[in-house]
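Check these lines:
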Amino acid sequence: MDQLQLAELVERYLKGEMDIAERQAFEQMRMNQPELDQMVVEFHYFLEEMDRYGEIRRFKSNLYDTHHTLQESGEIKELQLDTKARIINMWNKYRRVVAVAASIAGITAIFISGMLSLFTPKAPFDDIEELRRKVSNLEKQSSNQRAEFNRFKTKIEPGTDVKFGGTSFLIDAKGYLITSAHVIKGAKKIYVQSPAGEDLLAEIVHQDQNADLAILRINDADFEVPRQLPYGFSQSQTGLSEFVYTLGYPRNEIVYNEGYLSAKTGLGGDTMSCQISISANPGNSGGPVINKNGEIIGILNARQTSANGVVFATKIKQVYQLVSELKDADKDLNIKLRNASSLKGVSKSQQVNKVQEHVYMVKVVLG
């Protein structure tokens, strides 16, 4: 099947022009081919933006016709403007159209990129990079960097070599954190840096290498227990193309990125993870993936090095399963995952301000 035929097939699927048998066969193809699934998402988003752009153009056309009619009837008069004022007026009048046109151009580029990626060889598993970062050299390069590092309230003994770093976030206000298991691989000691810049000693509660998850507990007298976590943990299905954002520590300050869910499965159809189109760098491993309602839907853990913005995250249902198994094995373990989010309907900037208070940098000292 050539590129044009495939594009026509995707268009028929999105327009509901397939019969039941064709639709089932196509959906099976989507499940088996993550690249095709991502292409459908991008094409769907592209069509939505085109429709939205068409509506704006029709509205502006009607507005122009109405204005022209009223002007001819004498009900309104055209203002006499000098050349400079006319240019400013023209820009104010059409800047939204220009912005929409630029957005359409960008979306078209993304769609074409997705089409091309569909016909390139599939990425091997060794094309996947775990997103923990090496920190020892980065933090010793210059006196300015050392000064920046030392302004934090560090409890790490002088001369201790912090080797790797990543991200973690609270899953229970009592000090339980979740991160990716590969972030703490080989750790002798673990410190987590609070958003206020204070290092706190943490211990490993459990690691699950298969799910690439690790639960930590802050074991430090200086830890101030928050009253309640603002976000919840969602087990419901997240829709393709749904907006998501993440917070993490690819450097010594928290970084925000946003994107969308591009596939409901991970590499090779892995049902324990999902694929996200978002920017991520070493240090983002263990960071939360959050939807528009302020609900955690996953934990970032890896990216595809040969494709820009192709990132994988462990689904939050794996955290529920891990916590359940730990509770069955240890009845005294008191971890409670909050279902409800108090951030639903809250603006994005307010959400980020509240969530980042519970996202910690992980610092690993090797044995």
